[in-house]
């Protein structure tokens, strides 16, 4: 299944609107600060930001178009009912119009159907509503530059979620907060627990929640497959296979929700701390590479696992599809690495070479760009997998006042 809607006429209208808006924006930029005309890098940077905004508008159009088509479908049905009840004949033109309405509806897929999850999660095939999130809280914010995804699950002992959210919010200024959306995805189906976590977030971060900075979602209970039927892979225990397979599906659910919300997506975890102004640093880095015409798929701001991985929201469908296909096979960060290898490495040429690993790594580094020093650090010691101790630290993250602040919150 593809991810684009086949609506040529509507697309032409959209492109015309975007072209007009772009011209107005360029004129506004030139008049708002004439000094920028002499600052090529500043103008290029703003054009790169505008490019991302246009990309976001295009994706919003594609996703919202289903609502329009549902209205068309409803109108067509009502029209047929009226014609039948009046027992009158209609002209060929009107009949052709009614047929065209129905065909246009058939051409459109639902927003979630942009991702072919049904082949690999067949229990969802006849229940598309299982993919719809339970919105525990949302301020309705979208069209932001940065969307931060924070998956969380119940931990048997120590939890770090509130400390992580406080740290992330406190390390953004007001401008950065208004340009961001933090999505907390509670990967649990126990409604009492999800309501408890939601209440705690609202209680501890009232300003962030009330301003629309934080969305809180959970999956439908029927979203997950039967984890007792998973294949045992990599020689792992059944518990570990179930844990990492569910974690992958949590990533998928979170990314599908976040994809239309902004220009860039950043994967975080529920046990991290960040450096001050991380938002501005990440956004500037991405826009500068776009302005310079440098190819990239991932900007990596933390060397550990899936933490701090930044992507264009428009690129998320590729990763979502890849994880869905292999969610039972490997952990999510391994799948990300495998996808990058698939995109970058020439196996036919390199596999017979003794320098394969080095050559492949060089190609991957061109689209998976690591930022130094790291902007995020892992603080958790107990994994969400029962009994697993996780002591990994990113050596490129230099301890700052923010780590001290989070330790103070924890009472250390």
TrEMBL record:
<dbReference type="GO" id="GO:0005793">
    <property type="term" value="C:endoplasmic reticulum-Golgi intermediate compartment"/>
</dbReference>
<dbReference type="Pfam" id="PF04666">
    <property type="entry name" value="MGAT4_cons"/>
</dbReference>
<dbReference type="GO" id="GO:0005795">
    <property type="term" value="C:Golgi stack"/>
</dbReference>
<feature type="transmembrane region" description="Helical">
    <location>
        <begin position="12"/>
        <end position="30"/>
    </location>
</feature>
<keyword id="KW-1133">Transmembrane helix</keyword>
<protein>
    <recommendedName>
        <fullName>MGAT4 conserved region domain-containing protein</fullName>
    </recommendedName>
</protein>
<dbReference type="InterPro" id="IPR057279">
    <property type="entry name" value="MGAT4"/>
</dbReference>
<feature type="domain" description="MGAT4 conserved region">
    <location>
        <begin position="116"/>
        <end position="396"/>
    </location>
</feature>
<keyword id="KW-0472">Membrane</keyword>
<dbReference type="GO" id="GO:0008375">
    <property type="term" value="F:acetylglucosaminyltransferase activity"/>
</dbReference>
<keyword id="KW-0812">Transmembrane</keyword>
<dbReference type="GO" id="GO:0005783">
    <property type="term" value="C:endoplasmic reticulum"/>
</dbReference>
<dbReference type="GO" id="GO:0006487">
    <property type="term" value="P:protein N-linked glycosylation"/>
</dbReference>
<dbReference type="InterPro" id="IPR006759">
    <property type="entry name" value="Glyco_transf_54"/>
</dbReference>
């Amino acid at each position: 299944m593809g991810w684009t809607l086949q609506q040529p006429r509507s697309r032409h209208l959209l492109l015309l609107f975007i072209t007009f808006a772009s011209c107005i924006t360029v004129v506004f930029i030139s008049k708002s600060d004439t000094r920028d005309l002499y600052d090529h890098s500043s103008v290029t940077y703003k054009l790169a930001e505008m490019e991302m905004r246009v990309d976001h508008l295009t994706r919003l159009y594609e996703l919202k178009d289903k609502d329009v088509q549902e209205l068309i479908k409803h109108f067509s049905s009502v029209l047929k009912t009226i014609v039948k009840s009046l027992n009158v004949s209609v002209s060929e033109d009107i009949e052709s119009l009614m047929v065209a309405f129905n065909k246009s509806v058939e051409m459109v897929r639902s927003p979630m159907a942009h991702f072919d999850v049904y082949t690999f999660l067949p229990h969802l095939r006849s229940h598309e509503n299982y993919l719809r999130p339970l919105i525990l809280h949302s301020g309705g914010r979208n069209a932001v530059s940065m969307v931060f995804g924070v998956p969380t699950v119940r931990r048997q002992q120590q939890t770090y979620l509130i400390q992580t959210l406080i740290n992330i919010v406190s390390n953004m200024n007001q401008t950065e907060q208004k340009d961001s959306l933090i999505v907390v995805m509670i990967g649990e189906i126990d409604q009492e627990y999800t309501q408890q976590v939601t209440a705690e977030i609202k209680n501890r971060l009232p300003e962030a929640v009330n301003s629309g900075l934080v969305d809180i979602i959970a999956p439908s209970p029927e979203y997950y497959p039967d984890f007792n039927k998973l294949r045992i892979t990599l020689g792992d225990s059944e518990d570990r296979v179930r844990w990492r397979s569910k974690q992958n599906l949590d990533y998928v659910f979170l990314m599908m929700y976040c994809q239309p919300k902004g220009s860039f997506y950043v994967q975080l975890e529920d046990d991290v701390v960040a450096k001050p102004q991380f938002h501005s640093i990440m956004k500037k880095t991405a826009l500068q590479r776009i302005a310079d015409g440098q190819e990239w798929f991932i900007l990596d701001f933390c060397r550990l696992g899936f933490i701090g991985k930044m992507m264009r929201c428009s690129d998320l469908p590729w990763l979502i599809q890849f994880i869905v296909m292999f969610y039972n096979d490997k952990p999510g960060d391994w799948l990300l690495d495998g996808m990058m290898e698939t995109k970058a490495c020439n196996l036919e040429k390199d596999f017979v070479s003794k320098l394969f690993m080095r050559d492949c790594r060089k190609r991957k580094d061109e689209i998976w760009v690591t930022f130094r020093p790291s902007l995020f650090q892992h603080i958790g010691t107990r994994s969400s997998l029962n009994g697993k101790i996780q002591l990994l630290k990113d050596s490129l993250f230099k301890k700052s006042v923010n780590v001290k602040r989070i330790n103070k919150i924890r009472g250390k």
